[in-house]
Amino acid sequence: MISKISNPRGTSDILPDQVLAWEALEATARNVLKTYAYREIRTPLFEDVGLFKRSLGETTEVVNKQLLEVRSQREDAEEEAGFALRPEGTAPVVRAYNQFDLGREEYLSKLFYIGPMFRGERPQKGRLRQFHQIGAEAIGRGANHPLLDAEMIALAVRLLQTFGLKGFKLKINSLGSAEDKQKFAAWLRDQLKGKINHLNEDCQNQYERNVFRLLDSKDKDCQDVISDLSIGTSHLSESGLAYFEEVKKGLDQLGIAYEVSSHLVRGLDYYTHTVFEISCEGLGAQDAIGAGGRYNGLIEQLGGGDRRFPDETIGAIGFALGMERILLALENQGKLFSFRHALDVFIVTGDPEFKPQAFALLEQVRREGCSADMDFGNDRPFKKQFEQAHKANASFALILGAEEVKNQTVSIKNMATGEQVAVPRDKVVEELKQRLVPEF
Ligand code: HAM
User: Fold this and answer.
1) Burial of 107 (0-12, 13-18, 19+ CB in 10 A)
2) What is the DSSP string of 208-252?
3) What is the phi/psi pair of residue 83, to 5°?
4) Ligand 1 mean position, distance from CA 133 (Å)
5) Ligand 1 atom having least distance to the Cα of 295
6) Nearest in space to 260 (alpha carbons), one of 269, 271, 270, 248
7) Are the beta carbons of 352 and 181 closer than 8 angstroms?
8) Taking Cα atoms as reference points, which of 14, 88, 279, 18 lies closest to residue 165?
9) What's the 291 CA to ligand 1 centre distance in angstroms?
10) Residue 323: what pLDDT?
C-alpha cells in the first residue's frame, strides 16, 4: 500500500472544527487591540536573513540554532544571502516602519499582527516549528513615555483576561539603557569570572559572547551558579531607575499585579529598559504564553531614524502572545468551547428528478444571505439526507418531496423541534427568514 504523507513534525493542521476556536481568539484579539488604537500590519512570511541576524543578535539561540533559511533555485545576486522564514514579528515590523517611513506621518505608530512564525526548534508540547503569535508594537518619537510601557503590559494582560484565561503571572524587569546594559554585562562577567571554568563549553562560550544568555540557561550547573547571584538594580543609571519606577507606578494605577524578577533578561538582543514575560500554570516546561519589552535602539540599528528631529530618539515597545499555548491553557481550564459549524438550511429531495429544482432553490436561499447546502448524491433516501442535515448542524430542512412538487410548495422543517409546515414555493424564502430571526 502507498504510505500516507504526514505534516512535518512541529507543525499542525488546524482542522475545520478547531478553526472555529482560532477564529474566536482572533476576533476577540482584534476587538481588544482596536480599543487600544492598534491597526493591523501584515508583513511577508520570509525576509532577508540579514534582517534577523542584525536585529535579534548573532549570538541568540533564535538566530544561531533556529532560523529556518530558505533559498530559491535562482542564482540571483540579489538573493545571494538568502531568506529566512520569520521567527518573530518585531524585526519585520521595524523593517516595514523604516522602509515606508511611517514616522514621517505618525508621531506614534501602534501596529498589531496575527500570524504564523517559524523556528527550527526540537518539537515538544507547546514548542513548535510553526506557531502563531498575536503581537503588538508601538513605535515612534511618541513612544518614549513610561506610561506606554504600562499600557503595553496592560494590553497583553487585557487580551488574556478577555480570552477568559486564569492563573497567569506577570514578571517584569528593567535592563536600562544601552549603556546600562553594558554595565550590567560587565558586572555579570565580573561576578561569574571565578566560576565559569566549572561550567560546560556552551556556557563558557556564552560567557564570552553574550553573558545575558547565562541568566536563562537550561543547564543545571549554570542555573545553580546564577541563582547564587544577587542581582539588584545597581546596573541602572539614575534615569533608568526613575523610568522603571514610573512604569511600575503606571501598572499599580491600573491594578495590574506583577513580580519584579531581576533574572529576567529575555532571549533576544534588541531589548532595553522594560522587559516582561507572562507565564501560565499547568503548561509544563513551555509555560511562557507571552513576552515583550522595549527595544529603543532597533529602529536606528536597522537604518531608520528621523533626520528632521536629530535630538528625539525613536522609542519602541511591544509584545507577542503565543496562540497555541493560550489555546492549550484555555483547554486545560475547560474554557475552550467545543464550537460546531452550523448551517441555516439543508435541502432534501424526495426524488433525484427534483434535484435541479432543489439546486435553483439552494442558490436563491444563499443569495438572501442564508448558509445552505444540499445532498449532491444520487438516489439517497430521505433518511440519509436528514442524517446529513443533522451532521451539518442545520437549523431548518427544506423538503422537496412528491407532494410538495405536485402542490408547488416547499416544507420547512425545524430540525430542533421537528415542527414542519408546507408553504407556497414563492413564499419559502420570506417564511424561512422570519424563522431565522434574530440571526438576520
Ligand atoms: P518570544 O518570547 O520569542 O518573543 O515569543 C513570544 C511568545 O511566542 C512566547 O512567549 C511563546 O508563547 C510563543 N512562542 C515562541 N516560540 C514558540 C514555539 N517554538 N512554539 C510555540 N510558541 C512559541 C518574541 O517573539 C518577540 N518578538 C516579542 C516582542 C514583540 N518583543 C517586542 N515586541
Assistant:
1) exposed
2) HH-GGGGGG---HHHHHHHHT----STTS-HHHHHHHHHHHHHHH
3) -120, 165
4) 7
5) 32
6) 248
7) no
8) 279
9) 6
10) 98
User: Looking at the DSSP assignment, which residues form a beta bridge with residue 113?
Assistant: 135
Put residue 408 in one of left, alpha, beta given phi > 0 → left and psi -120 to 50 → alpha: left
For ligand 1, is residue 322 a contact (CB within 6 Å)? yes
The overall longest dimension of the chain from CA atoms, in Å, is 96
pTM: 0.92
Distances (CA, A) of 231 to 227, 243, 260: 9, 18, 12
The set of cell numbers assigned to 115 is: 500570524
- In the predicted model, residues of the chain with pLDDT beneath 70 are 75-80, 438-440
pLDDT score, position 421: 97
Give the CA angle between residues 392, 395, 398 to the nearest 5°: 90
pLDDT at 174: 96
- Compute the chain's Rg from CA coordinates: 28
CB atoms within 10 A of CB 381: 10
**Ligand 1: nearest atom to the Cα of 91:** 27
How far is it, in rounded angstroms, from Cα 113 to Cα 29?
10
Nearest-atom index, ligand 1, CA of 268: 3
Residue among 25, 86, 95, 133 whose CB has most ligand 1 atoms within 8 A, to mutate: 133
Please tell me whether residue 332 adopts helix, strand or coil conformation: helix
Dist. CA 86–CA 219, nearest whole Å? 27
pLDDT of the residue at 429:
94
